[in-house]
Each structure stands twice: as C-alpha cells, then as structure tokens.
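Notebook, student rotation project (T.W.).
Task set for the rotation: take a protein with a known small-molecule partner, predict the structure of the complex, and write up what can be learned from the model alone. Partner molecule chosen: pyridoxal-5'-phosphate. Sequence and SMILES entered below by T.W., checked by me.
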Amino acid sequence: MKTVYLDNNATTSIKPEVVDAMMPYLTDIWGNASSVFYEVGQRAEGELIKLRESVAKNIGAKNANEVYFTASGCEADNWAIKGYAFANKRKGNHIITTKIEHHAILGACEFLEKHGFSVTYLDVDDEGIVTAEDVEAAITDETILISVMTANNEIGTIEPIADIAKVARKHKIAFHTDAVQAIGHIPINVSELDVDMLSISGHKFHGPKGVGVLYIKNGTRIDNLIHGGGQERGKRAATENLAGIAGLAKALDIAVSNIDKNMANMKSMRDRLINGLRERIDYIKLNGPEDDRRLCNNVNFSYEFVEGEAILMRLNMKGICASSGSACASGSLDPSHVLLAIGVPHEIAHGSIRFSVGEDTTEEEIDYVLETMPKIISGLRAMSPMYEAFEDGRIESFTKKYMEEK
Ligand SMILES: *Cc1c(COP(=O)(O)O)cnc(C)c1O
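Predicted structure of the complex:
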C-alpha cells in the first residue's frame, strides 16, 4: 500500500540533497570547530562560518553573528523566553504571549510564572488572530517581552507579526516570534519584520531533526540556557553539530529559493482538499482563517459526531498520515488548547483532523483522501449514538448553523 503523507506540520521528509550536504561532516570534516590550533579543527571552523553566513542571508539577518544554532525549535523558544526574561528582570517581570502558542512557549512561560514573572496569555478571535491593538492594550510598565508566533501549527493562522513588532518597538519592549511553521511557507526576513528574536527548526522544512536556530538581534541581552564552553559566542555551550547545521543550512537554501513555486503548489492542494471535503461531507467546520491569513499547507476540520483518534486509525489503515491536533497534545484526552481558544465547543473539538500538505503533494494523493474520508466519516457516524440522537431530532447540531451560514 502506498503512503500518503499529509502531516507536514509535524515533520517533513529529509531531502536527498540535504543528506548529501550533511555527509562530509559525518565523514571527512569531523573535527571540533572549537579546536582551532590544528588543521582538522580549523577546517570545521571554516565550514561553520560559511554555514552561519548562508543561514543569515536566507533569513535576512544583517550579521551572521546574529544566528545562534540550537538543538531544536523547542530549545530556541525556551531560550528566547527564559534567557531574555532572566537577563532583563531588573527592567520588569511581565511577559505577553497568546493562548495558541506552541507548548514550547507556553511551557517556558508557565515555568517563569513559578519564578516571579507574570504572564498575560492573550485571547484570539474565532480564526486564531491576535491583533496589534490587543497586544498594545496588555502592555504595562513591567512588560519586558512579547512573544507571538508567526503562524500556528494546528490551524494555520498567520499572525500580523510586522504590526505587533512595531508596537513592541514603540514601547521599547523586546519581541520574539516562533517562526517554526512559517519558514518555507511564507517569506521571512528578520530585518524587514524588525523582530528581536526568531525561532526556526530544521525538520519542518525538509532538513534534519535535532537542529534549530534562534536569531538574536545584536544588542539583545539574553542569558544562557546551556552553560559550559564558549561556543556560539559564549551564549550556548556544546560542541557544534556541524552535520545538522549543514543540513539545516542546505534545506533552508532550497526552501527559500523555491518558495514561490512551493507555496503555489501547496495552496492549490490545500484548496482542493478543503473544497473537496466540504462538497462530500456534511456537518464539518473549517478551523482557522479562509483567506490569505491561512498557511498555504494547512487543512483543519472538525467532524461532528465522531472522534479524531478513530478517524486517524482508519486513515492509517488506508495509508494516510494526518494528525488530530499537535503531536505533543495527542496522548492526552483534552481537546487541543488552540481549538478551545478559538471557541470550538468540546463536543466537536474532539473530532478534529489536521491534514498538512507538502511541496510535493499531488492531485492524485488529494483525490485519494477525498475518496477515503467520506467513507470513514459515514462509517463512524453509523456507529455513533450522538449521530443517531441527532437524526432522531433529540439533539442539535453544532455545525449545522455554521454550514447554513456558508
Ligand atoms: C515543531 C514546532 C516547534 C518545535 O520544534 P522542534 O524542533 O520539534 O523542537 C516549535 N514551534 C512550532 C510552532 C512548531 O510547529
């Protein structure tokens, strides 16, 4: 059976060109980039300089020394939040973020709340948008840091980051954005966005896992998360993961060079899937925006009267990979914090499935999903006591009103 991989917001396949770019660092160039008194180390150091410059260019950083390599997107997020908060606690103890951030941000903020900081978790509207006005209204004399994601990993909402960055700049407050889902899906330029810190992760754009970047604008005071040696200009200890860094740099280069073509394909596959599911299945609700504020690869619907996990199991039997929320949240019985934040009722939030298309997703693959999903949903509804109660007129439908409005 063929595999149709539509979980690209969880991770992406590693490109063969990326593996090729990594190989020399796993074979010939194995030196320690910090051991610069002999040729073996110098060679590694020289490569690291070039790789850092390449990443800097591809995210629009003015200086290569504003690019700090980390071991993941989660680490970059944790570092930005905790490192900035601890280094600047004399200026104030208040942080502003949103209710729909990735758990890396939410977890770091909750940790800081146990250490004397206070955090505002902003509400979002029913499409997941937080406005610059909402952010500005939450600012107090104590506010030192604002963190709002560039794009949401579950429902694909693209936030007005440039406007929020302006508000932060006006009030002289640092601004961090988690751009892990955005990179490769929308053009990202840290200088144009005027952000102080920005996180990305290699494995979300066809690079390797276990490597990320925190862009830190020069002049931003930040404490270490990882103490030890003097790597990353003394800011993050650990012998450099040159192979991982080379893979991330190559994947970023490919993603940035092909962004227009990739965005066009993903958007067309996304819309084929959204429109096709709507035509074929009743009592469903699209989560997230319907316009150009939606990530080009994200499709997230709630299917009333069924459970997301049951859908995933049946999709798996047909070779289709999807997700019922964020990977971190699956395994817990609570509905996704993002769906609850946009006001999706518990009853239908449990029946939500995210398909995230990739740059290579084909029409044939989408059509296979469009053929398979209606059968799965009607099969599950046939066994659902809730659906029976609805058909007998004993309970109301949550999505009916929504569908009638469409
Ligand atoms: C995947 C993801 C992360 C975490 O990145 P890892 O490299 O897997 O740690 C952080 N934020 C968002 C929005 C993500 O989608």
